[in-house]
Amino acid sequence: MFQKAMNRMRPEAVILSLTCALIFAVAPRCAAQNLVPNPSFELMVTCPTLMGFSSPAYRPTGWDTFSDTPDYFHACAPDSAPNAVPLSVVSFQHPHQGEAFVGLAAWEAGNFREMPGA
User: Fold this and answer.
1) pLDDT tens digits, 12-31
2) Cβ(44)–Cβ(74) under 8 Å?
3) How far apart are CA 110 and CA 105, in angstroms?
4) Among 28, 29, 62, 27, which Cα is nearest to 44's?
5) Could you give the C-alpha distances from 25 to 11, 15, 17, 116, in angstroms and in order?
6) Does the model's pTM come out above 0.90?
7) Residues 6 or more apart whose Cβ sits within 8 Å of residue 51
């Protein structure tokens, strides 16, 4: 009698098993949307000649600063500009993709943080 009870599955367990199987079978087919505007920082109002997000004209379109001033580097900046690409006053760095990138200080003494956001 004990063996018969162990072999029989409860209906709730069967429903839960089928639901999980259905979720995992359908999940790979789901598509998501990209919620990051201007992910490569290519779109801008004017070519930046200053390093920080000092004004909306000198930051990438769709991006803002939440703490201090992150730095915006773009290849359209003249070679003498502090935010020129690839050689700036900070370092020699090629963009990962395209012609622009954003630099920031994650943390420095005195609780100084630069936080870009969209």
Assistant:
1) 777 887 776 767 766 566 67
2) yes
3) 12
4) 62
5) 21, 15, 12, 38
6) no
7) 69, 71, 72, 73, 82, 83, 88, 89, 90
